[in-house]
Amino acid sequence: MPPTDSSSAIDTHPTRSPATHVDTSSLVIVPTYNESDNIRIVIDRVMQLDADLSILIVDDGSPDGTAGVVREAMDAYPGLVHLIEREGKLGLGTAYLRGFRFALEHDYEYICEMDADLSHDPDDLPQLIAPVKANKCDLAIGSRYVGGVRVINWPLSRLVLSYGAGVYTRAITRMPIRDVTAGFKCFHRRVLERLDLSRVHSNGYAFQVEMHYRTWREGFRVKEVPVVFTERTEGQSKMSKAIVREAAWKVWELRLRDLIGRL
Ligand SMILES: Nc1nc2c(ncn2[C@@H]2O[C@H](COP(=O)(O)OP(=O)(O)O)[C@@H](O)[C@H]2O)c(=O)[nH]1
Ligand SMILES: [Mg+2]
Question: Using a 6 Å cutoff on CB, does residue 95 contact ligand 1?
């Protein structure tokens, strides 16, 4: 039987009742699959930031015990660390969609995406949140490809694939975004409220491309903030050929749906 999302049944986040309420406006959503070596460091680094931040981990039943590590952190930072556990690996896209639902239900204003493997530097979070807070944009994307290329420890093949994905996507969609597959960003909640998230079905890199495309097509203001991306040193990448294929098709699907919609 395929794994199911039973997250609502086993959400382990404390409710934001007056007794446990902590006044935070920003939520960082981190999807995890087998990130037990990284996740505590990520949580500690986010908690050390001088900002009103909470963190939500969406774990897909990682066999390496990632959720257990998160539960320990929940005790260390009461009310600021949240965990949603899903039964089995259901993919990055649905993990984020689940996290977005949590963020909207719990009234967060600034909603960030970040990987668990320290490829995204938690110290960059404030510079992603600041322009959204200052109403300079509705989505701030941590971009590897504005003002040069900022990627550390990637083989050339991976860099060519990632950079090429941008060239390909821009050629087909005309979307003016350099880092189309970026997974480090901050949305204002109004974006997630407006987009019909029930229509988003992509999962890997395609999920990031689709969210950027829909945000831009809705007329929201998108800003790219330069960040350095460092390939993970612990754990393993879940990237696969299927994920790349999905993204390649998705770009056409998005564009064609748009053209058909206009007709
Ligand atoms: N919940 C969940 N997280 C996932 C899944 N696949 C990948 N992730 C997480 O998504 C983030 C990015 O994945 P990663 O394998 O590092 O992708 P890469 O950076 O493109 O190689 C990491 O935090 C992963 O643990 C999944 O199926 N479910
Ligand atoms: Mg990674």
Answer: yes
